[in-house]
Amino acid sequence: MNYTLITLVIIIAIIGIIGLWLVSKYNSFIKLRLNVEEAFSTMDVYLKKRFDLIPNLVETVKGYASHESQTLEKVIQARNNISNASSIEEKLEAENQLTSTLRSLFAVSEAYPDLKANENFIDLQNSLKSVEEDIAMSRKYYNGTVKQFNTAILVFPASIVANMFNFTSKPMFEVSDNDERENVKVQF
Questions:
Q1: What is the total count of domains within the chain?
Q2: What is the C-alpha to C-alpha distance for residues 142 and 188, in angstroms, rounded to an integer?
């Protein structure tokens, strides 16, 4: 009788330890997932700031470069695609597209010296530059938190708990345009 009582206590202790470990892992996954969501929200704030700057920038360029309507339409369409994005993946892709079209808008501005000298355009360009720097930093933060979360749910034995509670990997922010990955060529 004494051995069965000791065996029962050991089994209950083991089950208790496993239960505590499961709860601990589950809670850590919840915290990491919330960090990812917070990081995405931080990035989203800066993306919204850029989103709001774009109409002013387009209107300023329109006044000087009215025959560049195709470039302006691409910027507006890319901006609209962000509004229509429903998932994180679609939103990240739309943001990549907008970044690419903004580059073409600034390339157009190079052809118009009056536009480049316009104080309103310069202010908007500087504001956009500042926002782009903030976006870059928030993307790094987002990717860092996604890496922590994805690592935590993929390592063994924690992956067993992650699978039990349907924790799935989150997408990293990646550059989708291969041209952006190329080395920049500077020519004088």
A1: 1
A2: 37
